[in-house]
Amino acid sequence: MAPRIENVRFIVAVASGKGGVGKSATAANLAAALAVQGLKVGMLDADIYGPSQPRMLGVHTVKPESDGARIDPVITHGIKLMSMGFMVAEDAALVWRGPLIQKALIEMIKQVNWAPLDVLVVDMPPGTGDVQLSLGQQAHVDGAVIVSTPQDIALIDARKGYEMFKKINVPVLGMVENMSMFCCPECGAESSIFGHGGAEKLAETVGISLLAEVPLSFTIRQNTDEGRPVVVSAPDTPEAAAYRTLAQKVWDKLLDTENQPNITKVVIE
Prior knowledge:
Strand content: 15-25%
Structural class: alpha/beta
Largest sheet: 9 strands, mixed
């Protein structure tokens, strides 16, 4: 059974079967929305090869402080953040094999001063590889959120992500359909550029919840690039409302997991 991080109440992984579906932007805004609710929130950027949270949360020029044994996370938008992006240049290619990746992940889990936290959000790398397995071995993960765009090619890989979490006995809290629709800022017409409703159909098929539908939005793109989550920078927009809905549903489901048997056990085949 994977251990819990002391004084961290819940860990939730935000994952995707493939890259390019907006997983990291979803994770950043989920964390910000939880923090806006008054919760103590941390963000572990576990996308070792492509860490983007320092830029998305507006602190890519900041360095965390350390006493040589433990590291203080960087605090931004009310979120405690740790990322490999603080350790390497933004344009550097990290050419590491699996054991080094696992070592870095363990250090960011166990040697960072996370506590006290209500929720630690983990921005997972795309796919179903070493980081996912290592996280399940090193920390008790209370639930996962799977992010996908609506088109079939993305949903095929999202299903693989769901099956991976089943294998390591991590509850899947539900799915987010990202880029669900595009609303023209000029005329207000809605267009389903990547299709619509695919994540809801997959969620129904596997028996989990659709947690939110997030639009394809210039506001999200621009504010994310500028390090300002829309939940904080544009709180009155429909985009921010979608993320607040996501955060509330995730929190409610995490509370439900406290009443469930503790069965987390990693199975390696």
